[in-house]
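Trying the structure run again after the queue cleared.
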Amino acid sequence: MPDNGNDKQWVGKNLIAGMKGRGLVVSEETLPSPELLATAKDGRREAPEDAIFDYFTASDGVQMRFARFPASKVVETKGTIIFLPGRTEFIEKFIEDVHIWNGLGFACAAMDLRGQGMSHRVHPNRDKHYVKTFDQHIDDVHQFFEQALVNKMPKPFILMGHSAGSHVILRFLHDHKRDADAAILMAPMVHVVASGVPRPLMHGLSYLMTLIGLGAAYVPGHNAFKEGRWGWRRKLTHDDERFADEDYFINTKDRRLAVGGVTYKWLLEAMRSCDKLNAAGYAEAIAAPVLILQAGEDQIVDNHAQSELAAVMPDCKVVRVEGAMHELLKETDDKRAQIWDAIGDFIDLKKGPDYSVL
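Done. Tokens:
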């Protein structure tokens, strides 16, 4: 956490005034306030002025991209929200909610998962979404904590992920029980949905294609990155403006942020990782408090599998966001309001969370 020195007199109304100076407004009655939500929406394509983008070195020596958003005008920061993106996503897609969390008095951090964003790409063709094993993601997140978060950002640490990122969080909470205090999971990938294809067939085909050296081939319906709504991209959100954010960052910031479709190897490893997550006794060992937000109209991941997993976890609450498609944080304002209502019930946004895991 940055040293704010003489800023220690910023309390109460002065704190709110300071946030207004950054374009962030907090209401003492409703959190987050309508003003803060509107300001964050308008600024969702511009990172906070105190943002720090950098790289850490993974265990195998490759470079992984991360960012910190320290909310440096807030003295008594309430904790750190740590974002992990879904498949194809990158840090910039979370900026709207970074603004909101900063305005509520929380620091934020995020990383690009291996194989996407500006982190190390496993396959030389950047359009191929390819991974050797999901186990590498778990270790990468641990290194992120060790090198970029611990003793650098304020606790408690609350993980917040989407889809494949939420899947990684669940496995991380199992393997590294004392690193994070809680998690907020958007549409977690507990099982993969394949448009009616039986799972044994999907698993067998992915295994066979990988075995004969075609693991880097795209699965049917997937191809190199192209912008706009097509194929599976039609299944992500009802909000055309927020949907366009990803293409905006790719076109205006760096084309290397883009990643194409699913390969057979990625699909095989995703299913293997889901098998680990659903193995007997695995979810029962995830002790941290977890909030799962389901998209009522999700066609990408399996809501029933999420509910079954949550039922055996020691401390897990499931909230269904009615009418929402898969990319919950890129949905329309009315559906995002349901998300923030659920988050406000899960943690104390006014005083900050109080966890005793660490």
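The mean pLDDT is 89. Worth checking whether this holds up in the mutant runs.
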